[in-house]
Amino acid sequence: MDFTWRLVVQWGPQFLEGLKQTVIVFAIATVFALITGTLVALVGTLQSRVVRAICRVYISIFRNSPLLVQLFFIFYGLPFIGIRFSPVVCGVLAITLNEGAFVAEILRGTIQAIPRGDWEAGASLSLSRFQILRHIVLPQAIRDAIPSLAGQASIILKDTSVLSLIMITELTRVSGLLFNKTFDTTGYIVVAGMYIALFLIITQLSQLLEKKLRVLR
Amino acid sequence: MRNRFFVTLGLIAVLLGSLSVIGLAGTLDDILSSGELVICTELGNVPWNYQDPATGEVTGFTTELVQMYADSIGVDLVVKSFDWAGVIPALLNNKADMIAAPLSRTMTRSTKILYTEPYIIAPGVVVARKGEFASLDDLNKSGVILTTTSGSIHEEIAIANYPNATMNAVPTVADHNAALVAGRADAVFTGKFVGESTVEGNANLEVLPGFTFMDSFACAVRFDSFDLWTSFNLFMRLIKLDGRYADLYEKWFEVEWVPYNIETAN
């Protein structure tokens, strides 16, 4: 195991560029995954059997197949039917669809955990189903789901490393490039440190959010 | 008296056992005692190392060459496959005794591994979709996406000689072929024989005229495997002298091997 400071300095700009790429993809994919998961969870509470079935199929497909397979399908497979996105868009799309399914399941669980009484209280105030969801159920469900959603955000950060396989130069790819050129493991150590730092930031933000939204009982 | 005898016997047994552990054995001794020569490579490199789709057997020019060596020293050959970028780390981490792959010789690699005698000359070529580029010079333009196997010498050559284009390397030969066919890349830098094999399998592709560089492939061992290195180099000399190399060459490339210099690959 080697660690060479000279390489850290020499490859500094590439590390920062890789970090920027990782953070951008992570941020966009997290936001879209949360939106996708929330919409699917909400739609899944509708009365329509067909709509609920479509949601279940989406969740089943994307939770039960590897992200890598989904990514390669979007990146290499879709161009054969004329759909070609850039590597970054492919990466964001694959992570969004994959993690959105997990977010939907998390929120489905927390929505179902909201006491029946809250629904009935809303109905007794003549609120529509949508209004009950919007003003009563969903805020509580999201608050209760924050620890699990923060865990999903950490998983999304790890998922970004897979994008090194589809021509995106993010942190993992930079460490690989350094090793291929020098056979020195410095890059892996630096990149591991950067990922750990990002995880710690996500954890801190999650704890702050939990504290802010905590309801004293 | 009897106790002292058994204690002495035990000490002698421990001493003899530890002698075999204290590195009097080299890599070649380990190979001979285990009965296996373990090589690492990347499968999928036709015609060097690949799995025959009809039989599932691992074969190829390089595989057969090393099989001949294993047979000559009376051991079995075990083939371990890795992504290209993982082949050298696999050797350095003792996951294999030798790299037997289309491994180009570079000075950077020579600081970490000990190259054997080269076993063939193999120029680099470019594969592209038919009709898109007339010559290699057409590749050196902004907006052109090049690809190759990550960590290969082709990546270095492309970046150095085609600076206006963008190089996006991928892990394996299969990946860079998929990238070209799916339109993710405009051209693939690869070896001559791998390139010709790729074009054979896809009528929409062509090898551009000219070579990107002249290359020679060699096997490699760790620096502490000097005995294996010496033995393999002797093997290379002997098979070139006695005609076995010429037979192997003709079998795989269907042309007569004409050595420029019996001591080297060309």
Characterization of this structure:
The complex is a heterodimer of chains A (217) and B (266). Chain A has 217 residues and is an all-alpha fold. In chain A, 79% of the residues lie in helices and 0% in strands. Chain A contains nine helices and no strands. The longest helix of chain A is centred in the N-terminal third of the chain and has 32 residues, at 12-43. Chain B has 266 residues and is of the alpha/beta class. Chain B has two domains: 24-122 and 215-253, Periplasmic binding protein-like II (D-Maltodextrin-Binding Protein, domain 2, 3-Layer(aba) Sandwich); 124-207, Periplasmic binding protein-like II (D-Maltodextrin-Binding Protein, domain 2). Chain B is built from ten helices and twelve strands. In chain B, strands 9-8-10-7-11 form a five-stranded mixed β-sheet, sandwiched between helices. In chain B, strands 4-1-5 form a three-stranded parallel β-sheet. The longest helix of chain B has 20 residues, at 2-21. The mean pLDDT of chain B is 90. At the A-B interface, helix 4 and helix 8 of A face helix 4 and helix 7 of B.
